[in-house]
Structures are given as structure tokens and as C-alpha cells.
Amino acid sequence: MxxxxxxxxxxxxxxxxxxxxxxxxxxxxxxxxxxxDLSTLRQHKAALLAALAAPDPDAFEERAAxxxxxxxxxxxxxxxxxxxxxxxxxxNSLHSDVVQRWAAEIERLAKLxxxxxxxxxxxxxxxxxxxxxxxxxxARLGWDEIELFGVCPRAPWxxxxxxxxxxxxxxxxxxxxxxxxxGGLRRYRAQVNNDGGAVxxxxxxx
Length: 206
Description:
50% of the residues lie in helices and 12% in strands. The chain is an alpha+beta fold and 206 residues long. Helix 4 crosses helix 5 (75-84), helix 6 (91-110) runs antiparallel to helix 7 and helix 6 crosses helix 8 (134-140). The mean pLDDT is 86.
């Protein structure tokens, strides 16, 4: 049984797993966890920690929508439950983890010696986009990483329609539908990477 299957099986029984540093914690109804279950958790602890440590924002959005619709819960409550299914305390915690991963990838790329002048400029913009809190706001509004950090694999900085919103310049406003930059330029979410031809900049760089 792999980690994802085990997590899903426990969720169906009302058990939620969370990570606290290197400690794996579970929460659920009294009596639901057996000694065999606890032994399984110990046996697969490393895989479970790895699975829970990597947030999946796309799965979060999908799951939150399903919970909101099927259970008739307010969106905030649905997001909390969806985040807890990924081992986070709430949606803010999940989004913060996602942004930290984005920041780590951008910092890794910025240290590479062969980054072009255009790439260096774009990465600087992306770092500001993250450090000023726009990436966290965008994550909370449902923007995914390809919409923010995607580029054309053959012409990363020339294809504006595939260039992620994080590379566009100084940001003034981020909404659910668009990013507005200082000076009046606006990038609408529906027009960014909407043809499936973009890749994440850190995937392009290996």
C-alpha cells in the first residue's frame, strides 16, 4: 500500500493525518485506530511524511469545491477540511507551504550561472512577487503555479501569452481574475497559459 492510498483509506474512516516537524500525528474518532493501524503508520512513516509535506494546490481546490457543494458547507469551512486532508491545519497553512516551495525553486534558479539577462530580470520580478506577498494572495485566490510561473519551453521570455503573471513587473493589485501592474498593464487570468503549451520555469531549467 502506498502513502496516498493509506491516507485516502484513513480519511474515509474519519482519520486525519498531520505533520509536526518529523512527528506524524493522527486525529479521529475514539476507537477507530487499531494497533494494526498504528503499526502500519510506523512502518510507512517516512513515505507518509513525504506525501504530507508536499502540498497539492490543484487537489486542494478540487476537493474544497466538492466538499462545499456536496456537504453544503461555507467555502472557508470546506477549504479547512480540504487542507486538513493534506495534513495541514487550515488553508492558510497549505498556501504558505506552497509559496515556500515556489520561493525555493526561484532562489535555486537565481543561483544558476547560465541564466540569461532576460531570465535574471524575470527571476528578480518573481522574487519580488513572492516577497511582497502577491504570490500568497494569488494562491489563496486559486491561481495555480503554471499561471504564475509558466513560460514557453522554446521562447521563455518572448511568448507573452505563456509567460506567468509573476514575471510581469511591479504589481499593484491581484484579484481572482487578473493581475494589475504599476503603469496600468493588466494580465487577465483567462489569457495566461490557457493553451496548455507552457511549462514551469524550474522544470525548463531542470
